[in-house]
TrEMBL record:
Residues 19-198 form the PRELI/MSF1 domain. Pfam families: PRELI. Residues 1-16 form the signal peptide. This is PRELI/MSF1 domain-containing protein. The lineage of its organism: Eukaryota, Viridiplantae, Streptophyta, Embryophyta, Tracheophyta. The keyword Lipid metabolism does not apply. InterPro entries: PRELI/MSF1_dom, Slowmo/Ups. The keyword Signal applies. Keywords: Signal. It comes from the Eukaryota.
Length: 202
C-alpha cells in the first residue's frame, strides 16, 4: 500500500490566475467491488462522523442507471465548512460552502469516477477534486488503484487575491490532510466489508 504525492503550481496566462494543484495515487489491497462499495458508504457510516467533521450534510440529488451503457450516474450535494484557514473564512464572511459531487460508475469496465466542485464562494475560490478507482494492473482482481487530482484557484479580483499563494498553499495542506483521513476511513470500511463477507461465507 503506497501513496505518491506530487505538488505543483502553474499560472494561467489568460487571466494571470495562480493555481495550486496536486495529484496522489494510493493502492488499496482490496478488490474494486469492495473499494467502490466503501466509497459509497464512507459518509453514511456513523463511526466516521468525527473524521468527517468538516462535512456537515450530504444529500443525494440524482441517481440514475443508463440501461444502454449500464453506467450509474449519481449527483450529491455536500455542505461543508468553508475551505482554508480561519482567516479566510473571516475575510469572505462565510463559514459554509456548498459543493456538488458527480459520480459515474461503469461496472463493465470497472471504473468509478468522482468529480467534486464548489458551487458557492466561486467569486473567491474555485476547488475541483477528481477521484478515480480502477483495478490495479498488477493485480486486477485483488487490488484497486485510486488516483486523485485536486486544483485550487483564487480569483484574481477577489478579497483573497493579495494573499492568493498563501491561501492556496494552506488550502492544499488542509485538503491533503483530509485525503489521509479519507484513505483511513476507506481502509477501515474495506476491512469491515471483508470481514462481513468472510462471515457470510462461513
Amino acid at each position: 500500500m503506497t501513496t505518491l504525492v506530487l505538488l505543483c503550481c502553474s499560472i494561467s496566462l489568460c487571466d494571470s490566475q495562480m493555481v495550486k494543484a496536486y495529484a496522489q495515487e494510493h493502492i488499496y489491497k482490496h478488490p474494486w467491488e469492495r473499494v467502490t462499495s466503501a466509497s459509497w458508504r464512507k459518509f453514511a457510516d456513523p463511526e466516521n462522523k468525527r473524521t468527517w467533521s468538516h462535512i456537515l450534510q450530504v444529500d443525494t440529488l440524482n441517481h440514475k442507471l443508463d440501461p444502454l451503457s449500464c453506467k450509474l450516474y449519481t449527483t450529491r450535494a455536500l455542505t461543508i465548512h468553508a475551505p482554508g484557514p480561519w482567516f479566510v473564512r473571516k475575510i469572505i464572511g462565510q463559514d459554509i460552502c456548498h459543493c456538488v459531487e458527480s459520480t459515474v460508475v461503469d461496472a463493465q469496465s470497472k471504473s468509478m469516477q468522482l468529480t467534486t466542485r464548489n458551487v458557492s464562494l466561486q467569486k473567491f475560490i474555485e476547488v475541483e477534486e477528481k477521484i478515480r478507482y480502477d483495478p490495479h494492473p498488477d493485480n486486477p482482481t485483488g487490488w484497486t488503484i485510486c488516483r486523485q487530482e485536486t486544483s485550487i484557484r483564487i480569483k484574481p479580483l477577489s478579497a483573497l487575491a493579495s494573499m492568493a499563494e498563501k491561501v492556496e498553499q494552506r488550502c492544499a495542506e488542509r485538503f491533503m490532510q483530509n485525503s489521509v483521513k479519507g484513505r483511513e476511513v476507506m481502509e477501515r470500511i474495506c476491512k469491515y466489508l471483508e470481514a462481513e463477507s468472510s462471515g457470510m461465507a462461513l
